Amino acid sequence: MMKRLINIAAILAAAVSLSSCLAGKYMSSYALTPEPHGVADIERTRHKADSLMPGSTAWYDSLKTIGLLKDTMIVGHNNFKVHACYVPAAKPAESEGTAIVIHGYGDNHLVFLYLVRMYRDELNYNVLFPDLQYHGYSEGNHIQMGWNDRLDIEKWIPIAHDIFKDDFMVLHGVSMGGATVMMTSGDELPDYVRAFVEDCGYSSVVMQFNNNRKQSFWFIPPDVLQSASLVTRKKYGWGFWEASSLKQLEKCEKPMLFIHGDADDFVPTFHVYKNYEAKKKGYKEMWVTPGAVHANSYAKYPQEYTQRVRDFLAKAKTL
Known about the structure:
Elements: H1 2-32, H2 42-52, H3 56-65, E1 70-75, E2 81-87, E3 98-102, H4 113-122, E4 126-130, H5 149-164, E5 169-174, H6 176-185, E6 193-199, H7 205-216, H8 224-236, H9 245-249, E7 256-261, H10 270-278, E8 284-289, H11 297-300, H12 302-316
Parallel strand pairs: 3-4, 3-5, 5-6, 6-7, 7-8
Antiparallel strand pairs: 1-2, 2-4
């Protein structure tokens, strides 16, 4: 009888293990290799850009037509080719610096044209805005959730500096782009990288995926994240637990502005408080926008958003 119970227990354990493994494999694939993506999804994101700020793609196309807005490609992390666009400030001779604008999950360089326009037309910054791997015109075999994207951003930083020759650079990202900014901020960067703006970025990949699990896959136990992380590490060389904005922020000494909507339930608002607290060194500001849902702070408060960024950058230049 005991032997039979042991055998049944072993079978059940194997079944649970297999189920967890399969669920982990599915979750890793579902989260990191969605379809459609990249070039196949450009048209949807053109419409999204215009929904966030009417006329954005017409503005983009007009600058491209007259040769002010240009494309470039470099070899990024893991030897994938990565794409970016860049455009000079509205008044290049009086440029305030260079901004690198970083998009979010499933988007590309077109989606946050409102930020590119803000920096170029309102703040008079030169701007470089890349496609992260597996997005837009960039190559890649999966979405890197900001963690390895930071390695590509660290390649774009000197490229942007060589193009524009500024001694002041700010990195500004939204959602996964905000997480990318925070994850980059803890690495050793050139002195001319002087400030960071993160808008509704998550504190860690684990926390974000766990929130997604609760929202969409509530019937799947949290243990599946361990399995999905192992699958991701084996397939792509990184795991969920290492991909932490909080750990990187602990090392960040340069000024950072944290922005988050208080009605955000996709990346819940508590993330910004954890992120703000994690940054112990250097100057920091936080703006929690009333009534704003995910990635909605600019759309809801465009003038205040622009002014807060302007004031923050002016302060950063004095430090």
